[in-house]
Amino acid sequence: MSLPAILAPSLLAGDHANLGASALVAANSGAPWLHIDIMDGHFVPNLTFGPEVPAALRRAGATQFFDTHLMVENPDAFIEPFAKAGANLLSVHIEPNYDHRRTLARIRELGCQCGIVLNPGTPAAAIESLLDCVDLVLVMTVQPGFGGQPFRRDMLPKLQQVDQWRRERGLKFRLEVDGGIDLASALECRSAGADTFVAGTSFFRAADKITFAKTIAQLP
Ligand code: DX5
Ligand code: ZN
Question: What distance in Å separates the CA atoms of residue 202 and residue 12, rounded to the nearest whole number?
Fold first, then answer.
């Protein structure tokens, strides 16, 4: 049994001069999650939002599940500020050198769900031993840092591998994809086991966002 499909519009593709309005556009589509990309200019060659952004969105009334993707070299420095700022889930990359298991446990102690993320160049085996202590695995389908890049179809076998481990071990974590996701690539990822779909460019460009969100929610 697959988990129901969830759409997480990515704020990165919203209007950075009016993030509150973009969060509202995402909410009004019916998408239950909002994906918030945190980039530190070190782990990825770009900068985005500090904890004040989710905190301000909460104050402005945003009630979505905040799916917070930390693309940072030192996650331990940021998990508490983002948890306090209203994050519901904090995802950390496997690639930097820190005590992953301890950081994931700390995220849960802070009252959030925790996720582990793999870059396209990182094999699934890198996270195999952590699958029992996460609420979500995020398989990047582009090299992180920028929106609007083409979907990496060569990530489908990685999704299938993680999904297979999930089934074999009876685990319940969500399997998320991020990067170049539109209705066509989402369908391919769904067939490979994904249940949680980040969409930036394709969502904010869609003329009919309610239909977009409904189509994702009803993926077979
Ligand atoms: C990329 C970010 C993504 C980004 C996806 O580094 O992690 O969340 O917003 O954007 P699209 O959907 O445009 O590829
Ligand atoms: Zn992201």
Answer: 12
Instruction: DSSP letter for 171, please.
Output: -
Q: For the segment 73-92, what is each residue's pLDDT rounded down to a tens digit?
A: 999 999 999 999 999 999 99
Indicate which residues carry an active-site annotation: 37, 178
Ligand 1 pocket mutation, candidates 146, 209, 212, criterion most atoms within 8 A of CB: 146
Which three-class secondary structure state does DSSP give residue 219? coil
Listed in sequence order, the residues at least 6 apart from 25 whose beta carbon sits closer than 8 Å to its beta carbon are 9, 14, 204, 209
- Protein residue with least CA distance to atom 10, ligand 1: 147
Atom of ligand 1 lying closest to residue 11 CA: 9
Q: How many Cβ atoms are within 10 Å of 61's Cβ, its own excluded? A: 10
> Does residue 1 carry a pLDDT above 90?
no
Q: Whose CA is nearest to atom 4 of ligand 1?
A: 147
Q: For the residues of 133-160, what is the DSSP string, one character each? A: G-SEEEEESS-TT-SSPPP-GGGHHHHH
